[in-house]
């Protein structure tokens, strides 16, 4: 039997799914959907993706495509009207999306004997946690407010985020050296505060950061300062290459948070890189995931 806390998270995701279905003609950005779920914008997209297997943006896109195909196959309304009803800017934008996703024009979809949605997951069931995996056990710690010297780069989540990360840390190190604060660097972290608009979103931010002890001096060009608020954190240790970190994040948000009874704080989660990838093999890399909790 599922625990009440887990059911609460699932009910929240179901509220979002229902809201999407009823408001496809609206922008449906991540902030709006986080509000529907009564979750912090810093956590909503991770919870949604972990529990459905899709980012919010991917789910909205698939819902729009499914509704568009349904409207095309059941009636003769012009594609422009259908496009506006399902949240596209106009007929050409919907036609382009149909060709890219299904390889079919609107006319071909109307006349096809086979519904192209047979290959489209319009509603994804919640992934099940593999029973052979042990339940995650974090270390709970309380930290004071921390000042973070940051460099931000942007990249596509599925393609060049690793490149963006390397660029960000290279620029951060150069700036920190110019500011003469390297001896006061306590740890290297990274934050990804945005809700992705999809796997091809080129504007997904990667923020590389150094937690600095003491006062922050005048900033070097291209760097900025973020503040991690004081509070409690659940810390999960991941051992292995950075390319498998997504599995740890998914497990935390899908398996631990709904069962933990903890309430997420409205603060950015982050990764702490414990050792240096230039000094150890990928399978020996240690990364701590910091989840802000009440």
UniProtKB/TrEMBL annotation:
Q: Any keyword Transcription?
A: yes
PANTHER family, alphabetized: TRANSCRIPTIONAL REGULATOR YGIV-RELATED
Domain HTH araC/xylS-type, which positions?
A: 14-112
Keywords noted in UniProt: Transcription, Transcription regulation
The molecule here is called: AraC family transcriptional regulator
Q: Which domain of life is it from?
A: Bacteria
* InterPro entries assigned: AraC_E-bd, GyrI-like, Homeodomain-like_sf, HTH_AraC, Reg_factor_effector_dom_sf, SmbC-like
Q: Which organism is it from?
A: Niveibacterium microcysteis
């Amino acid at each position: 039997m599922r625990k009440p806390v887990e059911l609460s998270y699932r009910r929240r995701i179901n509220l979002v799914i229902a809201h999407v279905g009823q408001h496809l003609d609206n922008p449906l950005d991540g902030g709006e959907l986080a509000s529907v779920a009564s979750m912090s914008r810093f956590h909503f997209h991770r919870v949604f993706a972990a529990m459905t297997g899709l980012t919010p943006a991917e789910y909205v896109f698939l819902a729009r495509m499914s509704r568009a195909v349904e409207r095309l196959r059941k009636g003769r309304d012009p594609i422009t009207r259908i496009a506006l009803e399902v949240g596209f800017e106009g007929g050409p934008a919907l036609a382009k999306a149909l060709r890219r996703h299904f390889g079919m024009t609107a006319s071909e979809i109307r006349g096809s004997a086979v519904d192209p949605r047979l290959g489209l997951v319009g509603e994804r069931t919640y992934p099940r946690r593999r029973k052979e995996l042990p339940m995650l056990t974090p270390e709970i710690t309380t930290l004071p407010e921390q000042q973070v010297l940051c460099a931000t780069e942007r990249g596509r989540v599925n393609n060049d985020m690793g490149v963006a990360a390397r660029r960000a840390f290279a620029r951060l190190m150069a700036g920190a050296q110019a500011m003469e604060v390297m001896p006061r660097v306590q740890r290297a972290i990274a934050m990804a505060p945005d809700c992705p608009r999809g796997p091809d979103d080129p504007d997904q931010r990667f923020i590389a950061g150094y937690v600095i002890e003491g006062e922050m001096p005048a900033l070097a060009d291209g760097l900025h300062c973020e503040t991690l608020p004081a509070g409690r954190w659940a810390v999960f240790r991941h051992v292995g290459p950075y390319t498998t970190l997504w599995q740890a994040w998914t497990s935390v948000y899908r398996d631990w948070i709904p069962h933990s009874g903890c309430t997420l704080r409205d603060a950015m989660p982050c990764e702490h890189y414990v050792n240096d990838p230039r000094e150890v093999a990928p399978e020996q890399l240690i990364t701590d995931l910091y989840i802000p909790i009440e």
